[in-house]
Specification:
- 42% of the residues lie in helices and 13% in strands.
- The chain is an alpha/beta fold.
- It folds into three domains: 1-69, Orthogonal Bundle (DNA polymerase, domain 1); 120-308, 3-Layer(aba) Sandwich (Rossmann fold), CATH 3.40.50.450; 312-376, Orthogonal Bundle (Arc Repressor Mutant, subunit A), CATH 1.10.10.
- A nine-stranded mixed β-sheet has the order 1-2-6-5-4-3-7-8-9, with helices on both faces. The chain has a three-stranded antiparallel β-sheet with strand order 10-12-11.
């Protein structure tokens, strides 16, 4: 893409009042962004509204700055991955996005751009998951990627980040991305800042993608909008944990609108983070207990049979028996439990019980929840 072409694409995308739908009509009529801006007022009025025509005739205030910023970002390539800008009609533009009612006019990408998406599944969930929810997301991310799927998520704290981390561990293919992060900012910044290292790791084996111009701040309304891209890239959307009013349920609805599968992992009735998943299941979402459930629902032939909780369910010699576990874990079960309830089950005095819980927490076998609750974590 030369400088003039880049400038024309940026100008079209930055024109006030001309959204993706109007921009597509203009491109269909005139062929290219450069041609759009060569038209007369009368020609433009055949396709656009009078207000849009007036906006098209004005040069956006920030266009010059954005042209310089984008040009420098594209020219100065990192050693470990690639920066690119894919526009509608570009052979690299993900065809899955064309199924959206308003596909992005162009997307900024950073990562292994020579690879492709392959089969993908979106994993979404709470930004404040239970310890077991975060662990489950990471385990599913790893197992799904090991089964040959790309894991798509949003780089947010909580379930998103855990799913990306798991996928990076489970990835084996060099032909497809291990994981794709769809972000709500410009790609010249990372949000949240805590995921700076994770974003770099994704660029090494996957892809970061954004429809927002470089320099774009993490504005609240950007994140629900980017969820449609997450839903479109996956064959299905797996919700790990979600409250009844959450962005994850928005993503699930968008997936349904795109005729994608919606899957949900059930949780404790006492955890508000599970109530959204339960609502989805009541409405017909696939109840998921293991990765094989996901593969069967998506009608994919797995490279290997994966059951995340085989160690917990198996009683063979190799898996060990429940009696080999710490006795307190047998009393806990997997649902959140209060200290008083646990004490009633196990009969230990308070000091001994708290000491054993602390030891199990440090070992990663137990997680501490808000409200004085404890929850056993699934085996990694």
């Amino acid at each position: 893409m030369d400088t003039n072409e880049l400038r024309a694409w940026l100008r079209l995308s930055m024109t006030d009042g001309v959204g993706n739908d109007a921009a597509r009509r203009l491109l269909a009529c005139f062929g290219s962004p450069q041609a759009v801006f060569e038209q007369t007022d009368a020609s433009l009025r055949q396709v656009a509204t009078p207000a849009q025509v007036q906006a098209l005739l004005r040069v956006p205030n920030e266009l010059a700055v954005q042209c310089v910023r984008s040009h420098q970002w594209l020219v100065h390539q990192p050693d470990t991955h690639t920066h690119a800008l894919w526009t509608l009609g570009d052979p690299h533009y993900p065809p899955e996005l064309l199924q959206l009612a308003d596909p992005p006019l162009m997307v900024y990408v950073a990562g292994q751009t020579e690879r492709t998406l392959g089969h993908a599944v979106a994993i979404v969930g709470s930004r404040n998951p239970t310890p077991q929810g975060a662990q489950t997301a990471e385990q599913f991310g790893e197992a799904l990627c090991a089964s040959g799927l790309c894991v798509v998520s949003g780089l947010a704290l909580g379930v998103d980040g855990a799913a990306h981390k798991g996928a990076l561990r489970g990835g084996a293919s060099n032909a497809h991305w291990h994981t794709v992060a769809v972000v709500g900012t410009g790609l010249d910044r990372v949000y949240p800042r805590q995921h700076q290292t994770l974003a770099g790791q994704i660029a090494l084996n996957g892809l970061l993608i954004s429809e927002y111009h470089l320099g774009t701040a993490p504005l609240a309304h950007h994140f629900p909008k980017r969820n449609r891209i997450i839903a479109a890239l996956g064959l299905g959307t797996l919700v790990v944990e979600a409250a009844l009013k959450s962005g994850s349920l928005i993503t699930a609805k968008m997936a349904l609108d795109l005729n994608r599968e919606v899957l949900a992992i059930p949780g404790s009735i006492h955890a508000t983070q599970s109530h959204g998943c339960h609502a989805l299941i009541r409405q017909g979402a696939k109840l998921v207990e293991n990765v094989q459930d996901v593969l069967e629902e998506l009608q994919l032939a797995p490279q290997q049979q994966v059951n995340l909780f085989a160690d917990a369910l198996e009683c063979g010699d190799d898996a060990g028996s429940p009696n080999d576990e710490h006795p307190l874990l047998n009393h806990m079960g997997f649902a959140p439990v209060s200290l008083d309830a646990l004490q009633a089950r196990c009969g230990l005095d308070t000091a001994t019980l708290q000491a054993q819980l602390l030891t199990l927490e440090l070992d990663g076998a137990v997680g501490r929840l808000p409200g004085g609750l404890f929850q056993r974590l699934a085996a990694a």
